[in-house]
Amino acid sequence: MGKTQRKNSKKNRFSSLILILICALIGFFCGIAIGKLSSALPHSPFFEGQFLLRWAAALVIICIALFLQTVIHEAGHLVAGLLSGYTFSSFRIGSFMWVKEQGKIKFRRLSVAGTGGQCLMNPPDLVDGKVPVVLYNLGGPLMNLATVPVCVALYFLFNDNFILSLFFLMLYLTGFALALTNGIPLKCGLINNDGYNALELSKSPEASYSFWLQMKINEQISKGIRLKDMPQEWFVLPDDNHMKNSMIASIAVFYANRLLDNLAFEDVIPLIDRLLSSNSGILPLHRYLLICDRLYCELIGENDKAVIDRLYTKELKKFMKQMHTFPSVIRTQYAYALFYEHNAEKAAALKKLFGKCGKKHPYAVEIESEQELLDIAAQKYGELIKKHSG
After folding, report:
1. What is the CA radius of gyration of the chain?
2. CA separation (Å) from 333 to 70, 191, 309, 383?
3. Closest Cα to residue 216, out of 233, 199, 200, 202?
4. Torsion angle in degrees (nearest 10) through CA of 330, 119, 184, 279
5. Cβ atoms within 10 A of the Cβ of 368, count?
6. Model pLDDT for residues 129-148, shown as the tens digit of each residue
C-alpha cells in the first residue's frame, strides 16, 4: 500500500468514526422520542396495549422523515444549482429518477451504490476558466439545515398532538443529521460527501474545471452523444500530482471509459492497470467500476485464470451485488458466466436482465455502448466454442 493509499485509509477510518458518532447521537435522541411516543400512545384506543404496533408506528414516522429530508437535500442542490446558473438535467431519489430528454421530463430507474439520491445539472459556460461550484455542492446540506428551525417551531406548535409532534421532531433530527454528515467534509464509503467535494473544488482551478467537465460530459450523454463522439480535447490524462485530487482523477476514469467505448482494448487494459496500481484519489465507486471493465477485457481477451481470480475479489463481488442492475456490471457478469463459468443458461438470464434494465436506464447511449460490448462477448465466445468443437 502506497503513502497516498495509507493516507486515504486513515481519512476513511476517521470519517467513519465521525459518521458513527453522529448517527449514535441522533439515534439516542430518536430513542428518547420513540420512548415518549410509546408511553403516550396508550391513551389512544387503537394503540391500547399494542407495544409492537406503537414502536412500528414510530419507526414508520422516522422512515418518512428521512425520505422527506433526502428529497429536501437533493432539492437544495437543485435550487443552489439554478441560483449558480446551472440548468436541470436529472433528479434521483433512491432508484427513482427523473431525467430531461429532448426538452421533456421522463421517469427512469437507476441505482448507484453509496448514494441515497443525486441531482445532476448542466453547467454554465466557463468564465475566465472558472465556474461556480461551492454553492451547488453545499446546497443540499444547507437546505437540510434550513429546515431545522422550522421543524422545531412546528414541533412546539403541535406539542399536544403526539403523532405530529414526533413527526416534526424526527424531521428536525434527520435534517440535522443529513446536514452534518453531508456538510462536514468526510471521505468514506464509495463516494465523497458534499462537504469534501466543496473542499476539493476550492483547492485548485484544475479541480473546478474537472468538475465542470464531468457535468459537461453528463450533459452530452443526456443529449444522446457517446463518449467516443465527444471532443477529444476533453479527455486528457491528468499528471500524477493532480491525480491525488478525486475531482481531477475522475477525468482519468472518463479517459479509460472513452477508450473502452472506442473498443480500444489494447490501450485501455494497460491504462486501467496503471490507474488501479497508482496512488491516486480515484473514488472507490469509480475504482470498482474500472475493475469491472478490466475484468471484462481479460475475460474476452487473454482469459488468464490467475488474472481473473486476482481481479474478482470478495470486495468486488460485494460491489457487483450492490450494483447488480448497473449496465456495465451486468455486462461483466455476462462475460464471466460465459468465459469463466461456461454457464450459458446463467449468461442468458443476465442478458435478459440487461434488456429489462436497459429499458429503464436514463441514458440510451450508455445502453447502446454496453450492448456492443455484450455482443462482442457473445461473438467471441461463439468463436471459442466453434474452435473447440472443430
Report:
1. 24
2. 32, 23, 14, 19
3. 233
4. 40
5. 13
6. 889 999 999 999 999 999 99
